[in-house]
Structures
1.
Amino acid sequence: MENINKYIARSLEDYNKLYNQSVSNPESFWEKIASTFVWRKKWNNVLSFDFKKPEFKWFVGGKLNISENCLDRHLLDRADQTAILFEPNDPKEKSQEISYKELYQRVCKFSNVLKNNNIKKGDRVCIYMPMVPELTVAVLACARIGAVHSVVFAGFSSTALAARINDSECKMLLTADGSFRGNKTIALKEIADQALINCNTIDTTIVLKRTGQKVLMNSNEKWWHDEILKVDELCDATEMDSEDMLFILYTSGSTGKPKGMVHSCGGYMVYTAYTFLNVFQYNPGDVYWCTADIGWVTGHSYIVYGPLLSGATSVMFEGVPSYPNFDRFWKICEKHKITHFYTAPTAIRALAKHPISYVENSDLSSLKVLGSVGEPINKEAWNWYNDNIGHNKCPIVDTWWQTETGGIMLSSLAGVTMQKPTYATKPMIGIQPVLLDLEGNELIGSDNEGVLAIKFPWPSIARTIYGDHDRYKNVYFSTYPGYYFPGDGALIDSKGNFRITGRVDDVVIVSGHNLGTAPIEDVINSHPNVAESAVIGFPHEIKGNALRAFVILNDENNCKEIVNEIKNLVSKTIGPIAKPDIIQIVPGLPKTRSGKIMRRILRKIASNDIDNIGDVSTLLNPEVVDLIIIGSKDF
Ligand code: WTA
């Protein structure tokens, strides 16, 4: 087997050389990278694709199991090395170092638990768990027996959980009694119970004991610790086709229900590992920490799969950056001698607000590489990160990608390629980004601004939206035929560096989380006293963007009460992250003659840019703009 290190760029020349190979002959390039993994059977051909269908198949006919690549193949050379380093919410609780061998054993056993409970290849298993090692065990155990995991972030409400379980008809739910988050204990099982009232596909629920709080257990609900006692130690990995489904992960869309993005085994494996090693320049002995939750794609690709495929030590943190104090991140860096720290701009901005002594009291000298993900990083946050955390000696990788792309698409390679503050910079090896104008023409050359598109497939592109291939086609491949359209705007500087300018659709990134405005409006409109609403994003100092809802009420008595009810309704139905920061009760909404709400105008009002509202004469109801500005009430 070839060694992947041969193909990792260690210099700018390497990057240029590898990049050129990867675009001039993608198939022969990716074949070489794929050859560095364990396959039960080699592929017949590397790639077949059709942007019109759309259909993408990588390593066609190849057979493998990704958990075997994450675990079994490391047993020879790094059995005793720490795979998962777990840092609990409470700093007084002991951290855990789980070696590759132990993780392998735990995954094998839990795979047998799944099998014992009648889970078979292709069945969907919903995972609604706190950030504890068992979450990683559950993910890998599903992968090992060919069950499709659908991890739902444990901050989501019961309604959101139920919708996700039902959409992919999950057969099993894995959850915990509760979860610790800062000084709060969240009753996860209770939320799951609520969700299950509206789900009828779940046969069995397995519950991990984490907090010890009292929970109700039905006859088809079993304790994790009981189940684990009933099984054998060994579990052979199930042979999977390269294109078999590995997981579903839901992301918000501009309209309607969440999209269950489907990733498949072979391509996702090759791409996440390859990008992990290139971007972070991880070396043996390094301790890598991504602060994301495994409920999001960043956690899937760069806490679990990418690092474990690469034999890295990956840190899992259960808690929050503010508990017990605002120095928690830095204390963890000191305690575990973190070398690679990967977080979101929203966390950086929030922590930068606190006295610098929180940072200065920790020894950050082990840090070598810093990363940013989830939203554009503004200059101030970048500088603060660089000066105070990296002490001007750590490269910062600003990684642009999406749930749909599976892995990092644009980023510098730490210490290898040039970095530029606020720029995600260059495409990953194998990625062919372009800028398009609104008519879909490619903007050739540098110093341009347009919408971002990708013109050639890469191994970890999502294959479909679960149960809705038409929507997949419409959202990503129809606006600009022949390209993958991610929904972001970008500009390119004179040296070919990309900078993401933000979403060009009705998705707002709040604290790094994607939120479609339409689903939030649906919830607000379901309040009996709401006539109509429009939700938009506006710039926010810490969260990047915050949400503002413009709401027309049927009856404006008791506004305050209704506003609270609306906030609770959103929180309960979608989750607290979707709760608007401001609810503005308005007499009307600006509309085009065809009845479409002019969100552009609302955005201007929300960002206090009233002078630049532009021409409103084409509106159906131009008078409403002044009424909103003068006469509405904010809550
Ligand atoms: C945004 C997260 C600017 C972008 C991995 C994208 C970014 C959406 C960056 C995907 C970045 C992510 N710079 N914007 N470095 N990273 N985004 O699916 O709008 O949760 O389309 O995946 O986040 O969010 P998702």
Note: The chain has two domains: 64-490, 511-634.
2.
Amino acid sequence: MPVISSSACAKLILLGEHAVVYGQPALAIPFSGLKVRCVIEPWINGPTGTLHIKARELQLNQPLQVLPEDNFLRKAVELVLAELGVSQTPTCKLTIYSDIPISAGLGASAAIAVATMRALSAFLGHPLEKETLNRLAFETERLMHGNPSGIDNTVIVYEQPILFRKGELIEFVYPSKNLHFLIADSGIKKATADTVAYLAQQREGNPQFIEAALAEIGRIALFGRKAFEQGDLSALGEAMNANQALLAQLDLSCEALEKLIVAARQAGALGAKLTGGGKGGNMLALITPETQEAVRKALLSAGAVSIYQTNLKGVQDND
Ligand code: PMV
């Protein structure tokens, strides 16, 4: 069997995180600046049926069978073997390299699962179709997040901007103008499972208030989708700001994120909000090439521990 290397990108939610768990629409884009790579090689003379897994970022260096049954990587491997009808685990070494920060709102767990499943299915001679890969990756997300919407695995598998709504056909969306973003890490790690569970608990206590806020986020996501497609950058920025205000009302932001968001806006960003699970992790600012340097500097002074940049090419933009 050959050595196989596969990768998967990170993702950014432009609008609609959390509300998407409750059936509202959300807008997300792939973020190819950060990636997971998974390399699988045959383990010559290794113990038959042993898949050794090494992932520095997850502090793993052991045979798969030693991992707990509910470990998402073990699940990812088992799902691929079952899907392909392979009864014996291949004798191989699987190594994961990831530059996507964990528990930071950028979809690291979904990207790790997708890269692993892509590599393993190719190693076994049957690369999975996107639809199948997406279905299996959603199963691993359930282990990680408890009640995921499916947005992370979908945007990571298809690697295209999407308007996502739980249980509905994926809608691919295209910006008409070039879009430029800066992403800044607050340095605070927060598991998405915790923030999703926190909101669920809040919703039980105050269903009317929470439902109204989630519905409003859904409306903002649809408004933002139009702005995204029409290339109306200031309307898209406004949507991001309005979305952030609601996320803060839902207590899903935090001081460090607010500091970064305010700094970005004051330095000229058209809009800024947290991205992903919140209460830590990363924020996202919509910028222009003209404001980029000022916003970057402001984010650094406001405490960003890492800053990334990504651009989306507009379909009608020749710049
Ligand atoms: O924090 P991340 O990258 O896992 O993004 C989570 C997005 C949520 O809407 C909060 C959860 C979900 O499953 O949609």
Note: The chain has two domains: 4-164, 175-312.
